[in-house]
């Protein structure tokens, strides 16, 4: 990109940023969606954060209206379209925090959302009603469709849950509405066909990978073998822009870095003793390598984890792994899943030169590097050597975030109107957000903002232009990875992990994937069968609950009725009969010896559809003849209590360091507080007696000084 063109892009992006800052009101960070601590490929039990719309693909021109479009615009009172979500705080511009009364959306985004709502009302006479699901997304969508009363018209599905929802067969096929998304201004919203049909949409203009390849430029500058004849460092960005960023180049690059840092101590608290060339989560590196060779887990021709290109990509990762040019930060107890985001944390501390980093963490690691006077860069994942830089097979994988579908039970007329409203809403949203007249322009001008949000020094005199150019290049090569949506990503994660670690006889990826293709085809075949039927498929296991079971030493376990310690409720079948459950008692439990036995008893029960839920509980065996009072110790530093606190909200366990009976069994859960002297309406220090009772009925107490303090 020439300097003049780049300068114009920088200037227009800055202007767009200043325009969107004039939305009114003070800006505040959006409330995070409840998640972000669990791996997106680990079971999909937690929702991922609804992405802040600051990314981009490639869009232009409004969708062409059909001949009947004018006639389909409702007259009279506005039509209400219910837009469902698991986290209304990030979607409804009129939603306020119940405590503070403040709007929960970031103000610039809120103003864009209000403008989009106005456009939908003006163009289609439609109003959105934003509703938050009252239960788990996958449960509520299914049960509402089964009941013939879909909870919403447009259903947002948190990233990673799409496979579960698809397998419920609760989503409409949207093939007949593809015309709404034909223009470039809206085509980015409509996902490709999955299992032969269109089911899902996106509301996020994606312009970066969720785990892009980043590197520490300052650490690279120290490696003399990476400099040219004039002593100038050749960065990965230089290689990419010169057309030489290939696998062999990357291998050579890592080799030189590893040689230089082989004896350099890594910072304290990081995984390795010495600085590593490339520490990463091998799942995301493997995915990137597959796509950089033209492979995929699920591509245009269906399942592709065993294609020549896919195997070639993972074999390259295996080669780096074997040469110790790529390392992961260790694995969890299953022996093959890398510790999620640990490598990115090490990168932020300066313990490695390259990593694949989650996009939402890049700002933090860039800030850490900047604190040390260092700068980080970003580059497309290198391509397989036989491909040219312009080869369409050379792509960058993007794992998807939240998706949107239309539930069965919504009428065809309302479905069509909802999709038109959806297209208008998100088109107008991005135009308003960027202060531009098209989504295409927003895409072009948002790149700089995105890089700034990631902490990239795009104004760096030497590297800023290259960072921006490489970032734009990533966006140009993005290809959707649908494996999470289809429920097959977790299977692939296990296969690549076991092949890298040689587990279960899997000596290499090509051997492992061929031996396990049935695991992939079983999932896809089952999904195809479900989607071909007209029935909603219940795939939600019952929720099993249980409480700690307490017994006197000498209790005969054969006399215990375990069903009395558990309950189970199914979203379809209701309360389940726990006498029909299966129970297993751990061999570690000794009913003759006092003690606390964790995860001692497991109950398993299935619903009518065959879904199984389970729960493990703790067993406590106590000495009924014990007459010794339990020992109670208060914490050295006691929490304070805010003025006017409701005493029923105070967790008195927080004031106790330990509370054990004569057999060292924890009895902290039995704590009771004497509040006769405590007055939370007046600042001061008050004595509170905390009493615990062991399972034989003996009590022990400790007096703590509780300080009630006024807010500063």
Element layout with pairings:
Elements: H1 3-20, H2 69-72, E1 79-85, H3 107-124, E2 126-132, H4 137-146, E3 154-157, H5 162-166, E4 213-216, H6 217-220, H7 236-242, H8 247-261, E5 276-278, H9 282-292, E6 298-299, E7 302-303, H10 308-322, H11 342-349, E8 352-356, H12 359-371, E9 376-379, E10 396-399, E11 403-406, H13 412-434, H14 439-453, H15 464-476, E12 478-481, H16 489-501, H17 509-515, H18 517-532, E13 543-546, E14 549-552, E15 566-570, E16 574-575, E17 582-585, E18 595-606, E19 612-622, E20 631-634, E21 641-642, E22 656-660, E23 672-674, E24 684-693, E25 699-709
Parallel strand pairs: 1-2, 1-3, 5-8, 10-12, 14-19, 21-25
Antiparallel strand pairs: 3-11, 4-8, 4-9, 6-7, 13-15, 15-16, 17-18, 18-19, 20-22, 23-24, 24-25
Explain how this protein is built.
This protein has four domains: 3-62 and 73-206 and 401-446, D-Maltodextrin-Binding Protein, domain 2; 213-396 and 467-532, D-Maltodextrin-Binding Protein, domain 2 (3-Layer(aba) Sandwich); 543-622, Immunoglobulin-like; 631-709, Immunoglobulin-like, CATH 2.60.40. It has 712 residues and is an alpha/beta fold. The strands form eight sheets. Strands 2-1-3-11 form a four-stranded mixed sheet. The radius of gyration is 29 Å and the shape is globular. The two termini are 53 Å apart. Helix 11 packs parallel to helix 12. The protein contains 18 helices and 25 strands. Strand 24 (684-693) and strand 25 form a beta hairpin.
């Amino acid at each position: 990109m020439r300097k003049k063109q780049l300068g114009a892009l920088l200037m227009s992006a800055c202007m767009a940023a200043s325009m969107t800052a004039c939305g009114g009101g003070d800006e505040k960070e959006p409330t995070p969606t409840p998640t972000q601590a669990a791996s997106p490929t680990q079971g999909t039990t937690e929702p991922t954060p609804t992405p802040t719309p600051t990314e981009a693909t490639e869009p232009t021109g409004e969708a062409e209206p059909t001949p009947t479009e004018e006639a389909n615009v409702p007259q009279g009172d506005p039509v209400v379209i219910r837009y469902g979500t698991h986290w209304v705080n990030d979607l409804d511009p009129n939603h306020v925090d119940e405590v503070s009364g403040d709007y929960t959306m970031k103000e610039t985004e809120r103003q864009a959302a209000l403008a989009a709502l106005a456009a939908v009302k003006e163009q289609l006479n439609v109003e959105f009603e934003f509703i938050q699901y009252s239960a788990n997304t996958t449960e509520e969508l299914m049960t509402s469709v089964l009941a013939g009363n879909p909870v919403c018209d447009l259903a947002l599905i948190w990233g990673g849950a799409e496979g579960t929802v698809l397998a419920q067969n609760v989503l409409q096929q949207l093939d007949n509405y593809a015309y709404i998304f034909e223009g470039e201004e809206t085509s980015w919203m409509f996902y490709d066909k999955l299992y032969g049909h269109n089911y899902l949409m996106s509301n996020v203009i994606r312009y970066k990978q969720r785990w892009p390849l980043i590197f520490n430029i300052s650490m690279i500058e120290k490696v003399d073998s990476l400099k040219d004849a004039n002593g100038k460092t050749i960065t990965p960005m230089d290689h990419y822009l010169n057309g030489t960023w290939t696998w062999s180049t990357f291998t050579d690059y890592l080799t030189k870095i590893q040689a230089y840092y082989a004896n350099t101590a890594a910072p304290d608290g990081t995984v390795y003793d010495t600085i590593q060339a490339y520490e990463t989560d091998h799942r995301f590196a493997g995915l990137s390598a597959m796509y950089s060779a033209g492979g995929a887990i699920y591509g245009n021709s269906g399942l592709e984890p065993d294609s020549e290109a896919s195997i070639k990509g993972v074999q390259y990762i295996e080669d780096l792994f074997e040469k110790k040019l790529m390392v992961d930060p260790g694995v969890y107890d299953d022996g093959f899943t890398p510790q999620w985001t640990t490598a990115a944390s090490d990168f932020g501390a300066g313990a490695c030169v390259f990593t694949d980093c989650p996009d939402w963490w890049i700002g933090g690691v860039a800030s850490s590097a900047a604190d040390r006077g260092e700068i980080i860069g970003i580059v497309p994942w290198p391509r397989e050597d036989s491909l040219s830089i312009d080869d369409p097979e050379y792509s960058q994988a993007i794992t998807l975030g939240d998706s949107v579908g239309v539930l069965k039970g919504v009428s065809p007329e309302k479905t069509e109107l909802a999709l038109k409203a959806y297209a208008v809403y998100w088109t107008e949203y991005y135009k308003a957000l960027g202060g531009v007249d098209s989504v295409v322009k927003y895409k072009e001008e948002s790149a700089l903002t995105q890089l700034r949000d990631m902490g990239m020094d795009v104004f760096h005199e030497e590297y800023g232009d290259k960072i921006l150019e490489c970032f734009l290049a990533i966006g140009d090569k993005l290809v959707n990875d649908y494996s999470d949506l289809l429920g097959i990503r977790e299977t692939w994660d296990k296969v690549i992990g076991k092949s890298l670690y040689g587990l279960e006889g899997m000596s290499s990826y090509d051997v492992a994937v061929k031996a396990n293709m049935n695991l992939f085809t079983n999932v896809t075949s089952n999904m195809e069968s479900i989607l071909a039927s007209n029935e909603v498929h219940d795939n939600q296991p019952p929720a099993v609950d249980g409480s700690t079971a307490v017994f006197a030493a000498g209790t005969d376990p054969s006399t215990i009725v375990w069903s009395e310690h558990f309950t189970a409720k199914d979203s379809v079948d209701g309360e389940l009969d726990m006498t029909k459950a299966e129970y297993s008692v751990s061999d570690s439990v000794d009913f003759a010896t006092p003690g606390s036995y964790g995860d001692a008893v497991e109950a398993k029960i299935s619903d009518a559809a065959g879904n199984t839920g389970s729960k493990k509980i703790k067993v406590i065996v106590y000495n009924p003849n014990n007459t010794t009072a339990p020992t109670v110790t208060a914490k050295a530093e006691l929490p304070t209590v805010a003025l006017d606190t409701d005493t029923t909200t105070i967790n008195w366990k927080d004031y106790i360091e330990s509370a054990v009976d004569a057999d060292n069994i924890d009895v902290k859960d039995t704590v009771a507080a004497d509040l006769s002297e405590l007055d939370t309406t007046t600042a001061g220090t008050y004595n509170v007696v905390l009493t615990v009772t062991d399972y034989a009925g003996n009590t022990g107490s400790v007096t703590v000084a509780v300080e009630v303090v006024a807010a500063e």
